[in-house]
Amino acid sequence: MNLDACKQALEASGDYQVLQRFKPLTHYHTQQPAKLFKACIIDTETTGLDTENCEIIELGYQIVEFDSAGNFYQILSAQDFLNEPEGGISEEVTQVTGLTLADVQGHHIPWEQVEQELADVDLFVAHNAGFDRPILERYHPIFIEKVWGCSASQIDWFHLAKVSSRSQEFLCWKVGKFFYDAHRALDDVQALTHLLAQPISEQQLPAFHFLLQNVRQAKVMVKATGAPFDVKDNLKKRGYRWNNSEKVWQKVIPAAEQEAELAWLLDHQTPNPNLTKLKATDTFSIRAQ
Known about the structure:
By secondary structure, this protein is of the alpha/beta class. The protein is 32% helix and 23% strand. It has two domains: 214 residues, 2-Layer Sandwich (Nucleotidyltransferase, domain 5); 61 residues, Alpha-Beta Plaits, CATH 3.30.70. The model has no long low-confidence stretch (mean pLDDT 95).
């Protein structure tokens, strides 16, 4: 059977969508500009969701060259490391990742090699940087004084790509028209790299272009200090999350939106919020929590 002809016939009918299995690439664009930068697309599989205590059981990353417009070029390195935790691996984690304690026993992340590879990376990107970065900062200082971006929260997928979910698997289907074996670190990383290379918006620019625009903006941490209890649902809908240690609703916004946010808070009975300017290297770090 000619699979390409079958695919074209099915899609032409208007009654089917055909997804293709993603196969990792070694290059995207080949004609390189004079100035290139390095991005590390990174993911962790862990023993739980508590960033202060969970342990890494798998680390995957891919280093890719990019230009100032967000185009990708050569894949410089793709790594995947298993890591034996001090504790166990629950059945729930095994169900998600497929990893058991037997799979990772005797394996440890070679942090010296990781540090050498990532030393000159300009930007780290994870699909949930607010989760991955705090965990990685606990394991090695290479992740602390770096700029990070989040492909889930720093790309307006709804308006730019008309997709209502920020799930990586869903975005790969709706935006990239491909599928992959999810929830293993390097598989997720390679799929995310390909997703970020996809053209979106009326301008048909790579999704990574819009992530870079967001990363370059100055950021402010807004804490809705003194917000009355009855506005909590409005705060949650507006993107605030609950900081349990300080008992306050908070979120990070571009500095350019500060005045509009203050006006919104004032309209919602919160006249005295606390604002803190963030350094470029603090976004998604525990220092911005």
